[in-house]
Each structure stands twice: as C-alpha cells, then as structure tokens.
Design a protein that fits this description.
Helix content of chain A: 25-40%
Shape of chain A: elongated
Number of strands of chain A: 20
Oligomer: homodimer
Radius of gyration of chain A: 22 Å
Structural class of chain A: alpha/beta
Largest interface: A-B, 27 and 28 residues
Chain lengths: ~475, ~475
C-alpha cells in the first residue's frame, strides 16, 4: 500500500516542522521531513528571528515585571479578541521553555538586550546576535542531522491518505518536484504509522487563494515571503474536513522599505533601531501620525491611509547600533543626511514642520512621555534624533497569514463538523489559525512555531 | 440508487431558496424544496423586510440621484473592501429588477416612502407596508403553491451525493426530522438530475461553530435568529471542497432592545423611526456618541465600548408614525415619558446633559447639518425630538453571518483548490460569503437573496 513507511511524517521544514521532527525522533520514532522547495526552511530562513518571551531571563536583570498572563493579554488586545484562548495561553506559558530550548539545547546565540516590540506592554523580545532568524533555522537543521532525521527536499504534499475510519495514515507526495511546475515529479505513497505533522506555513504568495479571502490583496501587492508560501498544504487539510479559521486576516508588515524588494536588508534596521529610537512621519506633512510601537495592524492601517507617505527617521548614534547598517546604506534602503535641510530637500518634506516634529520628539524623551500618541518611552534607554539623520522610505508589505486550520492546545487538527481531533493529524505554525486573531504581535511567531511544533512532534510520536 | 429524483433540489425555504425554486419551476423543471424546521422560511419569516434598491422608483419622485455604482460603493465602504467585486455588482445592478419582481410579480405591498438606511449614501430602502418581511415570504410561498412546488418540512440535509467525477447529483436527507434531535427521522436519498441549490442561511445560533470563528461569541450572547440558524448546510458544502469565505465576520444589530428577547417587536420601530428621527445617547453621560446612520459595524462597535449604556430617544410625532407602536409600548420595549425630567429620573440620566443634547440636536435639524457626528440630515423630513419622549434601551444582538461559501456571479459554488465551479452545486443567500465583507448594509440581504436565488434557480435548471 505504501512505497515506504515512517512512524511520523512531517510536512514542511521551517521552525515548526523541524521542532516537531526533533521531538518525535527523540521519542524514539522514525521520522521523515519533506519539503517542496530546493532549500529547507521556507519563511523561517528569511525571518528576522524576533522571539518574545514572558518572564525572559533579561527582564529580571532590567527590573521588568512580566508574566505569561500579561503576554496573553497583549495578544488578545492586538487580536481583537478573535484569538483562541487555549492557544494563546499555550504559547505565552510555553514561550520561556521554548526560548531556553533554542538557547541552551540548540545553542542559538541571542543579543544581550531586549527589544520592546510593537503592541507588547513591556520589553520581552529577544533577537539573535546577527539580527536574523536563519541562525535558529540552522541550529534546528544541525540538530536534525545529529539525530539522523532525513529532510527530503523537492518533495511536495499532494494529499492525505486516510483509513476507512478517517484517520490520517500517510500522504501522497510528489518526489522530484520542481516548484511551482504542475506535472513535475512522480507520485509516491508514504505511510505514517503514528501520524502526520502539517507545518507548511502560510499563503502570502498564493495570489488566487488570498484574493478569495481579501480581494484587495491582488498580484500587485508586494510580500516579504519566499515564493513557496502557497496554500496547498492548508488546502489538503481542508479537503479532509479540517476547520478553517480566520483565513481573511492577513498581516501587513509596517516596517518594510519601498526601496528594496521583499523583506530586504533594512527591515531589521527599522524594527530594532528605527522604531525604537526614531519617529515615523508622514512626508507629506512632516508630522508624526502614529504610536511607532503600536501593534502591526494599527500601524499598517495608519500608514496606508489616503495621502500618507510614511518615512522613518532616526539619529546617528542609534543607527550605528545596527550591525548591518553599512549594507543598508550601500543598497540605498537607508539614506544618510548630514543636515535636516538636506534631508527635507531630498525627500520633499516641509523643513520647518519636520524640525518642529524632531524637536518635539526629543523634548518628549526628556519628559519620558509621548503626549501625542502614547508611545511608551520610559522603560528603556532612548537616543535623541540628531545628525547624521538616517531615513527609510517605508511601504507596508504582506507579511503573515494569521489564519489557517484550527488546532487544539495539543496541536491536534480539529474536524469541521464535530469539533473533534482528526486522528493521526497534527499541525503547527503559520498553517494553523486562532493564535493571533486579528493581529499577530512581533516576536510571537517563533515561540508559536517552537511551542506547537514540539507539542505536535511529541503527540504525533504517541507520547 | 435514489429513493426519488427531481430535476432540482432546493435546500432551505427562505427568500433565496424559494426564489430559486420558482425560477427553476418556471423553466419547466421538477423541483423539490426541503426545510428542516416545522415551518418554512427560517430567518426570512422574522426579517424586517428592508429592501435596498438602486434607482428605486420612489427616488425619482423625491429627486434623489442614485445608481448601482453608488450602491456598490456604499457596500464596499462598509465591507472594508473585503467584498467580492463581481458579487457586489450583481446585487446592486440586480436590486431594481428583484424589487419589481417582488412588487409586481409576487404582489408584495411596500410602504410609500424610502428609508435612509445606515451606511447608505441616499434613501434607497423600501419597507413592506406592515414593517415585516413575512409578507415577502408569504408571497413567495403562495407562488410556490401556484406553481405546484412541494415544500417538504422537517426534512434535513445530511450530505451531498456526488458522482465519480465529483459532480453533485443529489443529497442524503433525513425525513421526519425533529430539530435539533440527533438520531430522529430516517435517511432518504434524493436525486437532483440537474443540480442542487443550497440556501440554508447562516449560523448565528450555532454556538460551537461561531465560537471557532469568534471565540467571544459564546452561549451567553443573544441573537435575533430563529433556532434553526445552524451550520450543517454550510458544513456539508465545505465537506465536499467548497471554499470558506469570511467566516469570522459576524454582524451585531445595533438596534435591538435589552427589554425583550431576540428580534422583538421594537426593532423595526428603532430602525424605521427611532434612528431616523431620534438620537442614540449614552445614558451614563447623557450625550450622543455616534452617527445614528453609520453602518451597522461602526455603530455596534461604538455601542459596546466599555462603559457605554446606549439608549434611543425619539419625539412623540415621529413615534406615532410607526404602525405597531402600541404593541411596543405594551411590551415595555418602548417607554413613553411626558417630560424630560421624568425620563431622566427613571433611566438615571443626567438631566441637564440630556436637555443640552436634545436642544443641540433639534437646532442641528434647523441647520440641516450634524456637526458632531456627520449624520446625514438634509435629504428627508425630520421631526424634532419633543414630548412625549419615546425611549428604547438598546443592546446589540448577533444578527447575521457575513461569511459563508464562495460563489461566482452565476451562484455557482467554487471549489477550494481550483477556484472552479463544483458541477451541480449552486448556492444563494446567507449561506454564501463575499457579498458583504466586513459589514452588511441594512436592506441588502433581501435583494441579495432574491437576485442570487433567482440566478441559482435558473442556472440549476440549466438555462
């Protein structure tokens, strides 16, 4: 009946899939990971690596009070209460263990400071020392190699195989698949004696699919995602009765540059330095228009309001803190100006209004209060915006799919009709929905992937 | 293979289902309508009967300029652009013909005046003379009887029957079904030689299903819907690969009373008279807080904001215009007060603030401009708010499911994977998604049901 059989089949090789594979293997099971692309990792290979942790070790050092309950509250607030409470709690409560697993077990090196991510009540977000999530992915890949877990590339999910009772017992896959070529490769049947973990990510690159759920998100819209972020994995699950959740809720990243394609090199500059130490202005007025540390949904909605021309301005001392600044300048994604007049002239901003904006902001730093937009200023060191100025011309890009298939807190995929687990099927990461509701907070995707990936792996292993 | 066979099987006996049945029968086909409840109509039997028409006959008389394009624009604006453009256009462009069909072909008597519905740019909404949509339902039922279309009650949809190629060729139904008793009745197989029309409505009463999509909408939440507004029909379609759209977008009605259950007798008083001639105030401040003619989403969001205690106040002359006022007063859903002081004391409203609010509003009527909230005041006659005062204590209730399964402008149900029609399956009405996006405008549901119901019936008949 099958061409080959493993205990656990993991579909997708990003943070969630590899975490699941590692746990299943450590439980003594045979595991196969399949990945449709030529390289492993999907969006995890491009990720900025932000990692939100409730009760982070560095919080104690800084005297920051935090708790899983506070992190969950932040997630509900951003998510407009659409979030599934049990999933939110599972991520918030599991974030510390997931972080320690990455740091101590996998050996990922994180920077020695916490980021105050937009929409978070307190600084609780770690960032890898090199400002890229690729080091987390690499650590997961190394661990898979150590454990002897095969990762079969260019092998695409075609559809689940179910037994007479509806339990998932394997998958039809396409071996030697060349994305996105329909008809490439050949079909093989892979058995999964204990179950399948679906971890195929989101569908930001699937124009036809995303237009069904949000017609405005047409082909012209830029995205930060890798080309393989398409909906087939999700659709395979829906085909066998998985429950769709929040498919129309997409996230636009409020920190991407219009001067480079996709994710780009400047995004982590804007996230880690620009939005922390700088201001976002509307170049058509020279004024601020939003709390730069609001959640991503609020910010991106303000940024695309009619007539807005959003730019980010940060001072020289702060800019130097970003390790990859030289690359950003070289590519033109970050522009440097010696004087305010020069910057205003080059970007056609009203110089008087801009000067007033920066003076006012610098004064608010002294007072520790942002009276205009309520941005939190008091909790961490801030640098004044002083020459040389660094500027990013922003444009929100499609970044993340909040929705997906429904799981319970055991990463079990729930059936549409009975709201009960579909036997043999687990899922984790962006392919699932319910954790974030209307808006995902920055830094929560990775703990989500690691927490639910590990749960999925353990439960698929039958522990 | 089948216990009996018809050309067209219609599932559901509301506005959409009966419109489909009539068109299919008129095309010469044999038709069966099944309905799981003891009575036909579902929510259509409870509906207020509002009917939005672009280029309505009465608009010309009043010198109101309108067009399908303007109605479509209003729908997109309320829908936050999530609406499917082809479906919006189909409803807006078809609204006039659908109205004339109801009025001239079915003989429904509408009141001789247009309602300016919330979120509509101009007055374009008809209302049946008795302020109830039940007359539209009755007219449809009479027409079905004339045409000899059987409506089989207590017959529930169990699942679609497909041929080897995936085409829908019939349905398994449960005859002698007693809602909501699982296990009641007996299964029969009904063939549909030309196809099935799914018109099973929304899922506002399906607590388990709605909580998946919006966890805050738990069992405690009141709804205007009939008990049978559950998700089985929708789920049957998803089971065979229909595409889910906007399932997390629900509508709260901003005009229901907390002093009566469900839809109640006062709702059409509030819709037709209260919101047109009165003001909505926050009883905790005595002040207005919203444009009373904003779309339903905007209004209901403002009404449930923390600490708000929404009430509607309208003057005596206006209140008398509502034909069923006596019933509202008798049930206590509308309260009458001779003086402002009496009303303020009884409802614990700050009398001075309330007096100021009413004076200010009455003055704005003279000026024809609502400077505070931008409510349109100029287009139709308005009555001042003067004694005796009539007051409704409002509480938004769950009213409508904006989401459902995806159809194209031919009412063909589209497949999840290929975005192509599932052969033999059409759908219309609240079971479908995409027409309304984030917010349905008042009065658009009935034209939607009639327009797409008739299209579904004609296309299922194979014309």
């Amino acid at each position: 009946m099958f061409d080959e059989t493993f205990d656990v089949l993991v579909v997708g090789s990003g943070y969630a899939g590899l975490s699941a594979a590692i746990e299943a293997r450590r439980a003594g099971r045979s595991v196969l990971v399949i990945e449709k692309m030529k390289l492993p990792g999907g969006n995890s290979a491009l990720s900025g690596g932000l990692f939100a942790v409730a009760n982070a070790p560095l919080q104690a050092a800084d005297g920051i009070e935090d708790s899983p309950a506070l992190m969950a509250e932040d997630m509900f607030k951003a998510g407009h209460g659409l979030n599934h409470p049990d999933l939110v709690r599972t991520v918030a409560e599991g974030s510390l263990e997931a972080f320690l697993w990455c740091r101590d077990d996998l050996g990922v090196v994180f920077a020695d400071g916490l980021h105050h991510g937009g929409g978070h009540s307190v600084p609780r977000v770690y960032s890898p020392a090199n400002c890229s999530g690729s080091v987390i992915l690499q650590a997961l890949l190394v661990k898979c190699r150590e454990l002897g877990i095969p990762i079969r590339l260019q092998t695409a999910m075609k559809g689940f195989i179910q037994d007479a009772g509806g339990a998932v017992v394997g998958a039809e896959v396409i071996a030697d698949y060349i994305f996105p070529r329909e008809g490439s490769g050949s079909v093989r049947r892979i058995g999964a004696a204990r179950g399948v973990v679906l971890a195929t990510g989101g569908y930001c690159q699937d124009v036809a699919f995303r237009k069904v759920h949000a017609p405005a998100l047409g082909a012209a819209l830029e995205t930060t995602n890798h080309p393989g972020a398409t909906a087939e994995g999700l659709v395979s699950a829906l085909r066998i009765g998985a429950t769709p959740v929040h498919l129309s809720w997409f996230q636009m990243g409020p920190w991407t540059s219009r001067d480079e394609e996709g994710w780009g090199v400047s995004t982590m500059f804007s996230v880690l330095v620009g939005l922390r130490h700088g201001v976002m202005i509307d170049a058509s007025t020279g004024r601020r228009f939003v709390n730069e540390l609001a959640d991503r949904l609020s910010r991106s909605q303000e940024m695309v309001a009619a007539g807005r021309d959003p730019m980010l301005i940060v001072g020289g001392v702060a800019a130097q803190q970003y390790p990859n600044l030289a690359q950003c300048l070289k590519r033109g994604a970050v522009k440097r100006y010696g004087t305010l007049e020069e910057m205003a002239r080059d970007q056609a901003i009203d110089a008087a209004a801009l000067a007033e904006t920066l003076e006012h902001y610098n004064r608010s730093l002294d007072e520790g209060v942002d009276e205009e937009f309520g941005r939190p200023l008091g909790t961490q060191e801030r640098y004044r915006i002083e020459p040389p100025y660094h500027l990013v011309r922003l444009r929100p890009k499609l970044h993340y799919c909040n929705g997906g298939i429904q799981i319970d807190s055991g990463a079990r995929v729930l059936d549409l009709e009975r709201h009960r687990p579909i036997p043999g099927l687990h899922a984790a990461g962006e392919v699932t929905g319910g954790v974030h509701g209307a808006c995902r907070l920055g830094g929560v995707a990775i703990p989500e992937c690691i927490v639910f990936g590990r749960i999925a792996g353990r439960n698929a292993a039958g522990l």
